[in-house]
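Might you be able to check the backbone structure tokens below? Thank you kindly.
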Amino acid sequence: MHVVLKQRHPQPDPAHAEPAGTEALRLASLLALGILDTDPEPQFDRIMDLTARYFGAPYGSVTFVDDHRQWFKASTGFTTRQDPRPQSICAITVDQRAPLIIPDTLLDPRTATLNSVLGGPRIRFYAGVPLVTDDGHTVGTLCVMDTRPREFGDGNLEVLAQFSELVLSELRLRLALRDLEAMAHTDTLTGLPNRRAFDRTLATACAALPGDPLVLGVMDLDRFKVINDTLGHAVGDAVLRFVAEQIGALLRPGELLARYGGDEFALLLTGPDALRRARDLTTDLPQHLRMPSGLRVSVSLGLSSAPTPGDPADLLRRADHAMYRAKQGGQTAALDLHTPLPPGRT
């Protein structure tokens, strides 16, 4: 889910009231931010420190509320990073989707019996504004608190809302950087991971502790240049997307297919049945490569296997050699099991 964050005026907006029964959508919007349970980040800490200093508040937090807790991305005064949702004042702000000012928590029946009011920090004053995504879901708050009752006028509320915009700006930046990272590791034509992403995953898999084997596959489309030259690049692109979809449909969760470049794909299988899965795929693959137009696509697949930990360059080179052996022999696939390296491409 792509989440865009927008500015919110600090007054309740009935036109954007969240319909009943959409808590699941709110939680999905929160999870899509990828913020929960992340490490402290100085940009959020600075905003919280600046906010607390401005209002002279001994307590405050950038809070996100999920289905069972409030969680602090940044805080002032608190020694813990989360509390149960039923004990959360910020959850009230999230539920009402509007700023919440409580001059004296002991006089408000919603807060008078909370642990943070009767014990612990003994919060007596609360002011919070909601953090709202562009799809209309309140995911958290920016709030300040005190151990004595206080008044908090409209001017202060406007300033607190402006501080909350700094939080939203940082969340937007995190999302933008995450999107850029995803784009840098995704092939735009097929939507598959690209070579950079595959190499990174392969290196991680090869560095695993001794255990189950892994299987690397290098796959090349046969006579793809002829398709491009005779039928055009639009058809060639359609063939690449078709192959990506068909092979992807054969894979199980945890198995990786990537476009490695041009008309070449790479495959990574791990787990105790990796070898059996590799053999099953070589059997099933030819039956799934006839396009709806009637065009039959064929591939040459080279497979190499090794126990972990292993050498990524060794696996790639052996799989590449096996792929050329399959192509020269007119086979769909060839499997190389721990054989010495032949000279060839790296």
In short: Residues 10 and 154 are 9 Å apart (CA to CA).
